[in-house]
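Encode chain A's predicted structure.
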Amino acid sequence: MRGLTDRTFEPERMDDPAIPRAELEEAFRFIRRVNRRLGGAKALLQALDRITRGWPRGRELSMIDLGAGCADIPLAVAAWADRRRRPVRIVAVDNHEKTLAIARDAVASEPRITLAEADARRLLDIFDPGAFDVAHAGMFLHHLADIEVVTVLRIMQRLARAVVWNDLTRDAVSKLGVRLLTIGTPAVVRHDAIVSVAKGFTRREAIDLAKRAGLEQIEYRRYLFGRFVVVGSA
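Encoded structure for chain A:
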């Protein structure tokens, strides 16, 4: 299935267990800035607004966030829930020990977010099917080969009533944009940002992989600054 796309599969430095924590923190500072200023968090929050439209006031939203990184997205969801006056319960999953340590510091004062160290491909060994309203993967699936993308999307579909896949587009504009955006940034940031876009997805690829995973009612939305969101249901 790897042949389905023309994505590259060069490793990102932040995935290396041996990466110094200082370099990892530099990478996450950049990711937080991108998510906050260039619409990564907003894209998910808009999807949550659509998913919860018509829900009774006071109904809790439960969400699992795969590849949670520094936990900036779970924190953004908690803030969104405050604005909507909606109870929320978030499980943030990652399997990188140093990343989890950074996330643990970030969510220390937020009891609605629980961190879990786990492999995304093994989540059904931990959580029951249908345990969550939403399964979200933000800038995570591009780290995986195509067969693993389909596998994880299928797992997300079993875990939740709605799947939100928030990731990077791969096109000439995005490739040029990331090179300009990372001028003057630390080497680890520039390397991983450029590689991430090369590992991103075209619209056709994202929709095709979502269909192969069995998602239904697939909705694809393209956002400025090289982001897209796929929303699907079980």
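Strands lie at 61-66, 88-94, 113-117, 132-138, 160-168, 216-223, 227-233.
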